[in-house]
C-alpha cells in the first residue's frame, strides 16, 4: 500500500484532481491519499501559503501529486512551486512532450521527446536580485555549480538508458556565457563520455529553439539549465497541442512531486470544463517513478484511445464533454 500526498490546488485544481483520482481509483492500484493544503486555499484556511503540515506530509510520503497553485502577487514566496523545489531539493524537472491524436497541434505525429531541466540553480532562481537606489540599474547573480550540472546531466543520460532512448541533446549558451554555461557544457561532456551507447550532441539554445520548431522529430532527450529549460519545455508543449497536455515531474533524492504544469485558470474554475489530461499524464509519470511502468502505459493507452474516439472530450479539445465525463470515458477504457 502506497500513500501519496495530494494537493488539490486552486482554481480548476480541485476539478482536475477529482477527475484524476477517479481514474486512478478505477485502476485499483492500492493507492492511499493524504490530502494537504497549499496556495490560496491554505492561506484562507491556515493563514499560510505552504503550511508546515503539508511539508511534513510530503517529507513523510516522499511522493506528491499536485494540482496548480496560485501564488498571490506581492506577498509570500515569489513562487510556491519554486519554494517546494528548494525545500526538497527537487533538482530534476522532467517534461515529456508527445504527439496525441485529435489535438490542435502543428505536428500531429512524430514528436516524442523529454526535456530534463535543472531545477535548483542558475538565473531562474533569482539570487542576488538588486535594483539601484535611483532605479536605473538592476542586477542578478547567476550561479551554476559542478554538482548541479553533473547530477542533472547524469539524470538525463540515465533516463535515456533506462527508457530505451538513443540520444541526449545538451543545450547551452557557452559561446557567450563562457563561465556559467561553459561549466555546464564542460561537465556535460565529461558525463556523456561515461555513456558510450547514448548518442550525444550539443546545441546552442537559440539554434535549439529553431530546430524544435522546424524538425522536432530529431529530438529525444534534451538536458539544459534552469532558465533555458523553462522556456524550451513550454515551447515543446506548444508542439503537441499546448499546456493542457503537458505533465511535469520534479524529482530529488528524497522526494518527488508530479504536477500539471498549466496554471489554475480561475476564469473557468467551477465550470467543470477543464481538461484533466495534464494531471492524468503526470500521474502516469508518478506510476513510472513508483516502479509501475506497465500501469503507467495502461493509463496512457486509455487516454490515447479516448482522444482517438473523441469520446466526451472537453471543449478545448473540440468536444462537448466535461472534466468528469472525460475522466469516466478514460476509466472505461482501462
From TrEMBL:
Pfam families in the record: Iso_dh
Enzyme class (EC, first level): oxidoreductase
SUPFAM superfamilies linked to this entry: Isocitrate/Isopropylmalate dehydrogenase-like
InterPro entries tied to this protein: IsoCit/isopropylmalate_DH_CS, IsoPropMal-DH-like_dom
EC number: 1.1.1.41
UniProt GO molecular function: isocitrate dehydrogenase (NAD+) activity; magnesium ion binding; NAD binding
Record flagged with keyword Oxidoreductase: yes
UniProt-listed GO biological process terms: isocitrate metabolic process; tricarboxylic acid cycle
Keyword terms: Oxidoreductase
Domain of life (superkingdom): Bacteria
Occurrences of domain Isopropylmalate dehydrogenase-like (ranges): 3-330
Protein family according to the UniProt entry: Belongs to the isocitrate and isopropylmalate dehydrogenases family.
PANTHER family to which the protein is assigned, alphabetical: DECARBOXYLATING DEHYDROGENASES-ISOCITRATE, ISOPROPYLMALATE, TARTRATE (PTHR11835), ISOCITRATE DEHYDROGENASE [NAD] SUBUNIT ALPHA, MITOCHONDRIAL (PTHR11835:SF34)
Name this protein carries in UniProt: Isocitrate dehydrogenase
Amino acid at each position: 500500500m502506497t500513500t501519496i500526498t495530494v494537493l488539490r490546488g486552486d482554481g480548476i485544481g480541485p476539478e482536475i484532481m477529482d477527475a484524476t483520482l477517479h481514474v486512478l481509483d478505477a485502476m485499483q492500484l492500492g493507492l492511499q491519499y493524504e490530502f494537504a493544503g497549499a496556495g490560496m486555499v491554505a492561506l484562507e484556511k491556515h493563514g499560510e501559503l505552504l503550511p508546515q503540515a503539508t511539508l511534513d506530509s510530503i517529507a513523510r510520503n516522499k511522493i506528491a501529486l499536485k494540482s496548480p497553485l496560485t501564488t498571490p502577487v506581492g506577498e509570500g514566496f515569489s513562487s510556491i512551486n519554486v519554494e517546494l523545489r528548494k525545500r526538497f531539493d527537487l533538482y530534476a524537472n522532467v517534461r515529456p512532450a508527445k504527439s496525441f491524436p485529435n489535438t490542435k497541434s502543428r505536428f500531429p505525429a512524430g514528436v516524442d521527446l523529454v526535456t530534463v531541466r535543472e531545477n535548483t540553480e542558475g538565473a531562474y532562481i533569482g539570487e542576488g536580485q538588486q535594483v539601484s537606489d535611483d532605479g536605473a540599474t538592476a542586477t542578478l547573480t547567476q550561479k551554476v555549480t559542478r554538482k548541479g550540472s553533473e547530477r542533472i546531466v547524469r539524470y538525463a543520460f540515465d533516463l535515456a538508458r533506462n527508457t530505451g532512448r538513443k540520444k541526449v541533446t545538451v543545450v547551452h549558451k557557452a559561446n557567450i556565457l563562457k563561465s556559467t554555461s561553459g561549466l555546464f557544457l564542460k561537465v556535460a561532456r565529461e558525463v556523456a563520455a561515461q555513456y558510450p551507447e547514448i548518442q550525444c550532441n550539443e546545441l546552442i539554445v537559440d539554434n535549439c529553439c529553431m530546430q524544435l520548431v522546424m524538425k522536432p522529430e530529431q529530438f529525444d532527450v534534451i538536458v539544459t539549465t534552469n532558465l533555458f529549460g523553462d522556456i524550451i519545455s513550454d515551447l515543446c508543449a506548444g508542439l503537441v497541442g499546448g499546456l493542457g497536455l503537458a505533465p511535469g515531474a520534479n524529482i530529488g533524492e528524497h522526494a518527488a512531486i508530479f504536477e500539471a504544469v498549466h496554471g489554475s485558470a480561475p476564469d473557468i474554475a467551477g465550470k467543470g470544463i477543464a481538461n484533466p489530461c495534464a494531471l492524468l499524464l503526470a500521474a502516469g509519470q508518478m506510476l513510472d517513478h513508483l516502479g509501475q511502468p506497465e500501469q503507467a502505459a495502461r493509463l496512457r493507452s486509455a487516454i490515447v484511445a479516448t482522444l482517438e474516439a473523441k469520446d466526451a472530450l472537453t471543449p478545448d479539445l473540440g468536444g462537448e464533454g466535461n472534466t468528469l465525463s472525460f475522466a469516466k470515458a478514460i476509466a472505461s477504457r482501462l
